[in-house]
Amino acid sequence: MTEDNWEERQKLMEATVKSAGFSTSSLEYLSQIFDDTAHKAKILGCVVVCPEENQVQLDLDSNEQVREFWIRFNNFTDFLCLEQPLVTPSKNTDHFHVTMTFPRNLTDIERLAIQSIFGSDKMREMLNLLRYLTTGKTSSCFFESTQKIITEDLKKIEEDFDNFGF
């Protein structure tokens, strides 16, 4: 990346951050977040789980987002030849992580678009896009708990999905 290109990307990020209601000091904070990911995960008792080249990861933060995801997934499964997604609970109650596997590798832009279309958390995807636009890198990883999911939790997740009629 040339120096001129880098300056243009920085200006774009600053304008985008301001238009989203953040101060430009948020740029320094975002940089620290992305640089310290593995360290922060360890402090929280988590591991960083990144997608394979043919996977996307969704962060669903409400039952409504989960319902919308299943509607979209069921509409596109045959067309996109998708496997059954891996759904794991997030650390927050009623929040879920979804990993979708595609039959081919995806570009970073395809991954970001698919995550947004399938209903991943809007702020997470905005920050992922900002990072891509300014650094050319993506950060579509999850912090996953290192603790095992107990059986009652799995049953609750299954019941929640059954309540959506899927």
Structure in a nutshell:
With 166 residues, this protein is of the alpha+beta class. Helix content is 54%, strand content 14%.
Could you walk me through the main structural features you see in this protein, from its secondary elements to its overall organization?
With 166 residues, the chain is an alpha+beta fold. The chain has one domain (3-163). Helices cover 54% and strands 14% of the residues. It is built from seven helices and five strands, in the order αααββαββααβα. It has helices spanning 3-19, 25-35, 37-43, 63-80, 108-117, 122-135, 151-163; strands spanning 46-49, 55-60, 86-89, 96-101, 142-145. Helix 1 runs antiparallel to helix 6 (122-135). The radius of gyration is 17 Å and the shape is globular. The model is unreliable at 148-155 (pLDDT under 50).
Class by helix and strand content?
alpha+beta
Tell me about the biggest sheet?
A: 3 strands, antiparallel
Which regions contain 5 or more consecutive residues with pLDDT less than 50? 148-155
Number of DSSP strand runs: 5
Mean pLDDT: 75
Strand content: 5-15%
Shape: globular
What percent of residues adopt helix (DSSP H or I)?
40-55%
Strand order across the largest sheet: 2-4-3
Number of helices: 7
List the secondary-structure elements in sequence, H or E: HHHEEHEEHHEH
